[in-house]
Each structure stands twice: as structure tokens, then as C-alpha cells.
Specification:
Elements (H helix, E strand, L loop, with lengths): L5 E8 L3 E8 L3 E2 L4 E5 L2 E6 L4 E3 L11 E5 L6 H7 L3 E5 L6 H4 L4 E4 L3 H4 L3 H13 L3 E5 L16 E3 L11 E3 L30 E4 L4 E2 L1 E3 L11 E6 L2 E6 L3 H4 L5 H11 L4
Amino acid sequence: MRKMILVFAASLIGASGVSAQACLGLPSFERGLVHIEHPHIPTQVLLPPAEGRLVRLDLQRKGQTIGYVQGAGDQIPAGLRQIGYTVVELHEDDLDPDRLRRFDAVILGVRAYNTLERIRLHQPALFDYVKAGGTLIVQYNTSHEIKVDAVAPYPLTISRERVTEENAEVRFLLPGHPVLNQPNRITPADFEGWVQERGLYFANQWDPRFQAILSSHDGGEPPRDGGLLVAQYGDGFFVYTGYSWFRQIPAGVPGAYRILVNLISLGR
């Protein structure tokens, strides 16, 4: 029998990445293997370089256990696990008061209100969870084919407003708000290195009980203040956010982690 030896080597790419090389005799392998399979497109196979990004992160967090309800699908649960959270992925039928009570925060994945057929039936349990002291974070949805009568416990209207320039200035409307200070103090540096966009499907009308935290806009357009709205509801907090955490967290953007952790930590 032929004896084979497997060697794995890793080397730094500057200060922010790592590459890998596997040696099984000859030749060596320096690429990964990715299958892309969806019903609406032909199967594709990619061979990207075997590289990853290393991020050094100054991060404080509160809370430990998060419930995550996937919508159209994103990689945020994996990112939150990497920074030490216990993330339990929930299905619609898991959304009852007894189960939700154990979570420090519950997050709805992108377009959950658009894609989950029975979410309307379980939304009252989510609002009751907030009222009893929980934190509910609702990521962006579209107003088209939305499956709930109301996005939030207070009136809120989703628009098509977005900020597509990833380097667009972000202004702090409420610099003293806990979202910008606890447990991580957020500064303009936390909006450096964002990828593809700032956010999408911001709200354009909301009840005065919501607080708008951030403002940004593309060049030549008016301020977009509806990308991060926070309201106290009962003893807890409801958050609607159009900022694109679903892009920034997989990309390893440090500031996105810090701000999302502050949202999760509300009320803790």
C-alpha cells in the first residue's frame, strides 16, 4: 500500500488574512471547492483561493443566548457563534412565549416577514416576548408580498430607500443612546471597511415612540434616517434595522460586530 502524508500549512497575508496549503504527496492544493446549487440556476462549482480573513476585535458583550429565525437565509448565526454567543436557530412553530423567554435577544433574519408563510400567526408571541422584557431585532424586509399586517408593535412603514455607497458618511442622531455606547462605544471608525452598501429598505415613516439612531445617504440624495430605529415596548426593546449586517458580518467588518452586539445587549 502506498503511504501518503498529509501536511497542512498556513501563512499570514499581511495583517488581515490567512492562506492554506494542503500537501498530499504531490501536487499541493491551494484552492477550496464550493458548490452552488439552487433550483432556478444550473449547478456551479467554484475553486476560490483557500484564504480567510483574520480580524482582531475589541469587543464587549452582554447576554449569552440568542434565538435566530432565518428568513431568506444569511450567515449571521455563524458570525455570532464565532464571538461566543449561543445561537439557537428557531422555526416558526418554535415561536411561543415559553420557548422565547429563555433568550436574551431574538433576531429575525433578512426578509423573514416576506418568506415565512406562518409568521403572521406567531408574531403576537414575538411582541409579547418584547413586552415582557426581551429584545427583538427585525432585519430588513420589503413592503412587497409582506406576510404581516404590521412590521412593529408601533406604526412603521418600509420604503425602498437605501444607501448604496459603502463609504457614505454615517451621522449619529442620538450620540448618547445606549446603542452607540453600551457595552461598546461606537465611533465613525466602526463604519470603515463596509462592503457593497450601508443598507437597504429603510423605513420612511415611523411612530414618534421610535428613536432614529443613525443617518446616512448617497451623494445627491436627502438624509436617510430610517435605517436603525429603536423603541421601548413594555419592558423590552423592538429594533428595525435596514443596515446590511447580513453582508458585513460574513465579511468580518469589526464595527458591524460591535454595533450588532450593542443592539443585542439592549436592556442588559
